Predict the 3D structure of the following.
Amino acid sequence: MQDKLLIVDDIPANISLLLDFLTDVGFKVLVAKDGAAAIKKAEYAHPDLILLDIMMPGIDGFEVCKRLKALPTTQDIPIIFMTALSDTVDKVKGFSLGAVDYITKPLQAEEVLARVSSHLNLRKLQQQLEDEIKVRDTYAAELEERNLELKSFAHTVAHDLRGPLTGIMALSDRLLTTDNSIQLPKYLQLISDSGQKMLEIINALLLLAGVSQQHTIRTEAIDMNDIINQVLEKRLNHLIKELQGEIVFPDTWPIANSYAPWIEEVWANYISNGLKYGGRPPKLELGANLQEDNMIKFWIHDNGTGLSKSSQAKLFTPFTRLHDDNVDGYGLGLSIVRQVIEKLGGEIGIESIEGKGSTFYFTLPAM
């Protein structure tokens, strides 16, 4: 890409000399014959460097420099003064206004080229350094965020695994120290249930790691009805029976372009949360709406007590837990949902009114 120069001078001979020479050596050259025109042209053309005459009628070069350095869009453009003045005071004034160099008239083509090239290279190095600093600052901010997430993540996982592990240890000790032949089937079932819960947590962690590491996903049209039936029959059937839950959903769904295994996890988390935190007994309604932006909004509404504004604000913070009772919190599950849906190009959210239940939703691209 050609470097763009702006020549500002009221003497046609000087303009002609610079225009011809600088164009021949490969620069794109713009011209302004007075200060006012120079300011306007610099604002809309944004040249890479300005060659600015000092002694001009109307607005002189010093004032042009001052105004350009005061404008956010032009303040970073290097300015080289062109002048017949040799007074040190004038040079110091120019530098104090933000100029980077002086060229003394009569102009010598080789000197102009050397100074212009030097300051263009300096500017490019400065811009490169600024870009690298921005990248490093962004990386540092992301790293800090990831570190905070990791601490919350470790706390959540420890909390989720501690319950079933404590149960297994307590039941095992009881079996080893007492004669519980009558209670044996019950204890073994409880141990099995706790082990299953731990396995679910580990599988969730593996899924979360996979979402974070997988850079490309092959998406296709998905059968949402089949996915939900799989979730209800194979993964949540016991919970539905235990809580006597009622789940209503349509026979047909809009066709989304997505990745079925991950969407199964999304529904599993949303439905299980709805069963746990819905009313007693829980009643859930599932549905979907095609939006104007060609995204499909899938949603689940429960008959629970709803969430306050402050709880809603915390809800999708990574690994935040809203419940401290013996029922698993939202933390790990919604962290997975958030990362999955964002990876698939959608978004998640909640609409809730205290006393009137909550509607959790996620969006996916329509097929």
